Amino acid sequence: MADFNKILDAGDVDGGIINVVVEIPAGSSHKIEWNRDLAVFELDRIDPQIFAKPCNYGFIPQTLDEDGDELDALILTEQPLPTGIFLKAKVIGVMKFVDDGEVDDKIVVVPADDRDTGNAYNSLEDLPKQLINQLEFHFSHYKDLKKAGTTVVESWGDVAQAKEVIKESIQRWKDL
């Protein structure tokens, strides 16, 4: 398996098209994580089915969020994407998120070439409000059966704010 952090960078952040690696397909309750030290995907845990991911979940190569892991991405597609692929993704916003007291932001993306939607999604405002509500509910409650109240969606940010979070995460990677 390729080491995504060696063969890919974050992409064209200023242009709004970034590289994203899929860890967890939409609908899965498997918490699959990229193990940076071994350069493999690892099953961290199995969450209760009621907390299956409402969207695809992945990371942006050569970034580090404040929690010490690669910066997370929420990848919005109609169909689940398999673990281990990467895509060119269009940045449409950021979910400002805190997990157990640590900043753990999520960059919201869609495929850069989405002919199914006609590339209709360019910002969070283009998404159905119900989808935003579902994402916020999921991430506010997915740890409730183990550690209730430890996850908080603080706010949502626009494309410019998302790009700033990515750039800060790239700098943390470079400083590693």
Automatic annotation (TrEMBL):
Binding positions for Mg(2+) 1 per the UniProt entry: 67, 72, 104
Enzyme class: hydrolase
Pfam families in the cross-refs: Pyrophosphatase (PF00719)
Keyword RNA-binding: no
Compartments it resides in: Cytoplasm
Segments crossing the lipid bilayer: none
Keywords, comma-separated and alphabetical: Cytoplasm, Hydrolase, Magnesium, Metal-binding
Positions with a binding annotation for substrate: 31, 45, 57, 142
Entry EC no(s): 3.6.1.1
Catalysed reaction equations from the record: diphosphate + H2O = 2 phosphate + H(+)
Taxonomy, superkingdom: Bacteria
Coarse class of the protein's main subcellular location: cytoplasm
InterPro entries: Pyrophosphatase, Pyrophosphatase_sf
Cofactors required: Mg(2+)
Subunit text: Homohexamer.
Protein family per UniProt: Belongs to the PPase family.
Protein function: Catalyzes the hydrolysis of inorganic pyrophosphate (PPi) forming two phosphate ions.
Protein name (Swiss-Prot/TrEMBL): Inorganic pyrophosphatase
Species name: Psychrobacter pocilloporae
Gene symbol of the encoding locus: ppa
